[in-house]
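About this split. The held-out portion is used to measure sequence recovery: a designer receives only the structure tokens and must propose an amino acid at every position. Recovery is the fraction of positions where the proposal matches the reference. Here is one held-out target exactly as it appears in the evaluation file.
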């Protein structure tokens, strides 16, 4: 499996786990209510006995639910971290080098461009020449070579330029950065951002349907720990140590 496919699989796993967290709420809701109904309709239990059984049921489901959420949180974080790591490696890879003839022609044109920028009668003409060269450079490898030279070329333009030239050069650099990336790298950059957002976001939207369902079912304290289950079990360990 290539790094790209492995990255895609990791991201899909993160999304699957995040969906499973919501499924856990629905499963808990169904089974909890079934057991609660059994206690309520148990004629062998006194009212006091029923109340005690309900409290035990609630505590048991709280531990089970938060234990499952902790597993989901760990799995989602692991998958997100793997996606981010693989994306970083893909983004650091150099694009495939073109044939020698194309590379030689590019280097010759680049040398001519540098000279024309130094001799440009005004900053506007320099920006126009650089923009034209960037627009005709489509190969990611060549665009990356041009990106490495951009600082010096921009410096030769802005030494006598205004703030407007700097804005134009910044736009050109952004465009060049995009050109220097392969389609896989662009996709990797997107998935990396989505994985970071997923890793740092709650499994259950605070105040959302699933979060409110747990709050109604097992109480506000359980809902409070739904997105930070590790804190709940750390607290339990501290209280019983």
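Reference sequence for scoring:
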């Amino acid at each position: 499996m290539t790094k790209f496919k492995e990255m895609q699989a990791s991201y899909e796993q993160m999304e699957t786990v995040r969906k499973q967290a919501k499924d856990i709420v629905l499963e808990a809701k169904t089974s909890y209510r079934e057991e609660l109904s059994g206690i309520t309709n148990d004629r062998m239990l006194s009212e006091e006995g029923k109340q005690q059984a309900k409290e035990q049921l609630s505590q048991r489901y709280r531990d089970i639910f938060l234990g499952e959420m902790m597993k989901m949180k760990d799995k989602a974080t692991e998958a997100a971290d793997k996606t981010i790591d693989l994306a970083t490696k893909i983004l650091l890879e150099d694009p495939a080098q073109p044939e020698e003839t194309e590379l030689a022609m590019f280097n010759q044109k680049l040398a001519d461009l540098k000279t024309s920028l130094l001799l440009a009668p005004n900053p506007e003409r320099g920006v126009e020449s650089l923009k034209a060269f960037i627009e005709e450079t489509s190969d990611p490898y060549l665009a990356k070579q041009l990106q490495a030279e951009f600082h010096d070329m921009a410096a030769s333009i802005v030494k006598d330029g205004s703030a407007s030239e700097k804005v134009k050069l910044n736009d050109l650099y952004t465009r060049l950065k995009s050109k220097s990336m392969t389609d896989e790298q662009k996709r990797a950059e997107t998935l990396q951002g989505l994985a970071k957002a997923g890793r740092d976001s709650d499994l259950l939207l605070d105040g959302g349907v699933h979060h409110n369902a747990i709050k109604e079912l097992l109480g506000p304290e359980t809902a409070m720990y739904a997105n930070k289950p590790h804190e709940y079990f750390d607290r339990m360990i501290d209280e019983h140590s």
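Annotator remark: The longest helix spans residues 47-92.
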